[in-house]
Amino acid sequence: MSEKQIDYNVSYQQNFYCHIKINDTPLIPGNIISLVVREWALELVPRIHLVFQDDGLFSEITTLQDLDVINVEIGRTPEDKDCFTGSFNVLDWKCNLVADNRLHIIEVTGLLDSPKLYAPVKTRSFRNKTSVNVIKTIANECGLKPKERSGFNPNVDTMTWLQIQQNNHDFIKHILQRSFRNNDVVLAYGDSKKNFNITSLNTELSKKEEISAKFNPQKFSQNVLSDEDQNVLWYASYDYVNTNGYLNKITNYGLKTNYYDLNNNQEIIVKDNSHEYSELSFKHKDFVGEIVDQNFNGIQTENVHKNFNKAITQNKYYISNFFGYSLVLNVHASVKVSLMDTVMLSVPSLPYIDPNSLNELLTGRYLVGGIIYIIGKNQGFQKHISLHRNGFNKSMYQKSYTSL
User: Fold this and answer.
1) What does R_g of the chain's alpha carbons equal in angstroms?
2) How far apart are CA 20 and CA 26, in angstroms?
3) Which of 16, 181, 211, 390 has the least CB density, counted as fewest CB within 10 Å?
4) What is the pTM of this model?
């Protein structure tokens, strides 16, 4: 019997496989209350939130410290071919006293194990570099493995990039807000294997490969899927939320960015009439083109690339427009899925409409923007994926729309 199976068979009787070590000291699986790992395309690296019972080991004998290492391996069973594995650094933690001060409940928050990403603060410059070149340089410096996604073309935003009193993590986010691709936005994100992917929204939208996602509670509940079923994202429930009503008021109807080029006062208005993956945007049709967000970004100088100020507005705009809507699926935990995968989602209609038909509004193509791995007592091992697009389809029950 393997060490994994022995650990799984210990009398705690949890309905998931979990092996967690903090600074090489393993946690007793029965003491783990919950664990959530989130990979998110708009965050640079995965995040962990761990809650466990402690009898004094991590709160009195060897107290937790900043950047302590947490090694994680989780799955449905020890035999899972694709158990989730990753290492994380402790960034914040708190301790709650319970049971008449005889037991501690510790909550830990951490990010991917890459200490040089979070400390120290630095002041330096990168002369005559594009945003992507600088991001690659810093990623290598932090022990990450930068790689451009297939189809991604180099940026044309060469300038001197200044890292002023920032750690590497905050500086990369600073760069992404100011990098420029015409009518596009650069995305950079890491995974638990320390791959650091660099891509753009349009690069991902143009991909042809896709994964099918289908509603089937029976297959979702099966412990073992056939080889054929392993290629489908079987889900048993979904939730969706549209925050574009708020985001559109801030960014997505019409924008005007003023800046001086020392000779003329120039104005840039960023608007978008495209509906990637869908026929209709989430915007209220009567307000498209109205200026709802006006910024003054200062003086344009020769120290920055010529689209520097436009990029600040444009990048904010495209991210808010596309990622402000999220449809979350609870999928079979053993099916492999990655950030920025393209998903062809089939959503059944509600029973009182037609249980044999598809929900035309929600069915269609999406990008995977987030993946959440969850374990906990009485929860088992769950995997949620967050799907995104900037609109919905036309319904056969609604006859007319005002087009943009």
Assistant:
1) 24
2) 6
3) 211
4) 0.90
